[in-house]
From TrEMBL, chain A:
Organism: Laspinema palackyanum D2a
Domain NADH:ubiquinone oxidoreductase-like 20kDa subunit, first and last residues per copy: 14-163
Protein name as catalogued: Oxidoreductase
Pfam families attached to this UniProt entry: Oxidored_q6 (PF01058)
Origin superkingdom: Bacteria
Amino acid sequence: MDKIRLATVWLGGCSGCHMSFLDLDEWLIELAEKVDIVFSPVASDIKEYPENVDVCLVEGAVANEENMELLIEARKRTKFLISFGDCAVTANVPGMRNMLGKAETVLKRCYLELSDETRQLPHFPGIVPELLDRVRPVHEVVDVDLFMPGCPPSAQRILATVEPLLRGELPEMKGRPMIKFG
Amino acid sequence: MDLAELREIGEKERTAQKPIRVHCCTSTGCQAANSLGVKKNLENTCKEKKMGDRVQVVGVGCMGFCGRGPLVQIEAQNKLYEEVTPDDAASIIEAIAGGTASAAEGDPEHPFFARQMRIVRETSGKIDPERIEEYIAVGGYEPLYKAIHDLTPSETIDEVSKSGLRGRGGGGYPTGLKWATVAKMPGQQKYVICNADEGDPGAFMDRSVLESDPHRVLEGMAIAAYAIGASEGYIYVRAEYPLAIERLQKAIKQAKKYGILGSQIFDSPFDFKIEIRIGAGAFVCGEETALIQSIEGGRGNPRPRPPYPAQEGLWKSPTLINNVETFANIPAIIREGGAWYAGIGTEKSKGTKVFALTGQIRNNGLIEVPMGITLREIVEEMGGGVPNGKVKAVQTGGPSGGCIPASLLDTPVDYDSLVKIGSMMGSGGMVVMDEKTSMVEVARFYMEFCRGETCGKCIPCRAGTVQMYQMLTKILNREATLQDIVKLEQLCDMVKNTSLCGLGMTAPNPVMSTLRYFREEYLTLLKDSPNGKVPAGTAASITS
Amino acid sequence: MSVVTLKINGVDLAIEEGTTILDASKEAGIRIPTLCHLNGITDVGACRLCLVEIAGVNKMLPSCVTQVAEGMDITTDSDRLQEYRRMIVEMLFSEGNHVCAVCVANENCELQDLAIEVGMDHSRFPYRFPEREIDISHPQFGIDHNRCVLCTRCVRVCDEIEGAHVWDVAFRGAAAKVVTGLNQPWGTVDACTSCGKCVEACPTGSIFRKGSTVAEMTRDRNKLEFIVNARENKQWTR
């Protein structure tokens, strides 16, 4: 049997979920025997999301155009997509800007109203991705196959989620150890 | 006062009345079209022409044909004038002696009038609502006298039970049973409440009854109080009905003056006083437990039932709460007997029902029809159908009701038939929609209403109405998928089954009924394929 | 005192008359989720989480305000009830701004616990991100309306146990919110005795003690019941 093709994606989040993933420590070695990590901000240098991915862990909320494109691409090329951590599941902290309203209001607040010097709205088309008007959790944009809340999900939770999947079984996302938010 | 004295007041009034009475509507609708100006000019012309000895101009309540107001009617000559302006007034008076009036002449034999059967509205538009003598002149307050002197409280309740009358506020609960329950509850202090917090968009039946015939409602309440053993009553009217409030105040004052309200009514040991409470504009206060809290001075929030108000109502005392139209039916039932009333209508829905016929229809206004009449008869014959088009749907029951498609117009109007087809009688709003109407937008309109009017106490109603509104907006913006429709249906089911009070329990009805009968309209608004979405995977697909 | 016999989830029970279904279930070791219920204050049946099905009754009834009756056949955990409960919790999360990660009550929050209990791993309803206020005008306490679920426990505890009636509910629908005084800054409301009972009563991190930061908030929920017991039954120790 070919190795399982695993990807991890980092959208609008703090990378804490990925750090927690690295907290899996020696299990990562076991994991490496079972999977090929084909795309990941922490374990690969590939820039384009590859085809035929088996499992993808998506960290972060959908906050800008780049997030949106990458997520849609990832969904199209992935069999089983996991919403990974509270930002992906609820929009969490990145989503808190939604209370201010549209992207423009948020940018004005940050870069004009709260700035002391060099007041200037960032605008570099093609370099700095444009903010979306509303930060959204992953499942509001694409279909999600499994939700793994947590801020971040602990290494144990990640293990208990991913390990059965590698055997082709669904983990039971139930109870405090598996689905507590925060 | 005894019966002879009461009749004497009536007799004196009838003698004083002139043979030709020119009725000019002074209800809110016609007033908005300057019927008071018309009335003034009618009076002036009468005076100028010195016709005062045989012609009398009377400000009366609603005649029903509100869409063509201001209305002027001369019953003695079987004449009806529509859309009368103050300038028409002189010619109308002149026409009494022959000649033609400049105002458009209506047809008093039109099905709109001819098909009606008037019990609640029997004297609406015929008497001056601001004079108790006119009400007494047509036999008013004799039923109250009869109840107090000829019937025991339990016999009074028996008549109401026999009549088969059901709550006209929309619930359709048997009125006699409700009265009997309150009557049998232990406790010295009991209350009667009249729910006049009519709030459904498109409904104005109760306003019209209160403005046109306030004494009929007071009499109904007094009979109820006698039957259940209450000595205090409240009328809870919404502040948006200033004219109704004014006329009720006048009516209460007049009735008190004659000893018809107050202590030892008709020289009996029965005391009953009525106070008015004015609602501050919350739709939810039409829900009985919220209304009671509001009367008590609290925030108008519903509370779980049981206990029902009949057990534990105002100030925790047994309380009878009925709607305006229910009370307005009572005097006739006592006068003619319950068996007479039970002879009208269908097997399970007795008597008549007042409807406010509005929307895309030729003849707008108020009608009172016997139960069992079909929607088609109301809409097509009486209402005259849709101007330049066809009926698409009829909405009954307001935000709690549903949309009935044209294909079901032959459904008889009664409590159970309407519920069976996913709508409800409600308080009597009937909005006709033509083929250009978007049913999804209609559903969203009612949801917007509920979203704004939910009290916020229970979560399903407070948050569910907002979510449903957002989903409907998403559908109208062509951003929704089939999944959203499924989710909308699940949400409707949950809000309906888990909400605390009737507002939440029925809020999904307009959505559910349009999804049931106009599903195609929803489906055509969906976007073709979900952007970037691929079907969900399975765990097995990972290793395969 | 008399006793009635009834069935909860198929188990035969003998329960004192006048007991609510919620208390009867507790006695039988059956847990029914609640949010607006708090021992020591009156029940309002508002959150609808404790709804149960009773055979022969056509609507679901809130167990916190429904008394047991002879022969009742009650179901507390049907699939339908569980689905409704999950939807209710999802709607609560999507209605306010509940960011567990940065909340004082993280790990000590009844809403968070409810999400676990009803198996909510995500909300199927879009988050609404309403704009809500925070009032920190009181010297000791603060209220963050973003986290308020409108259970009105603060309203009742202040009115019924402390007798101050500082709290109430204002406005309708989505705009409904708890207010202090007549919607004045909490710190300016003279009626407030700063007793802190509202802090103990709040199920989420909405009403908090100033100075506590993420996940530091703990509460003594039973204190309120203890106070009531002490007053009414003269039980001064616990």
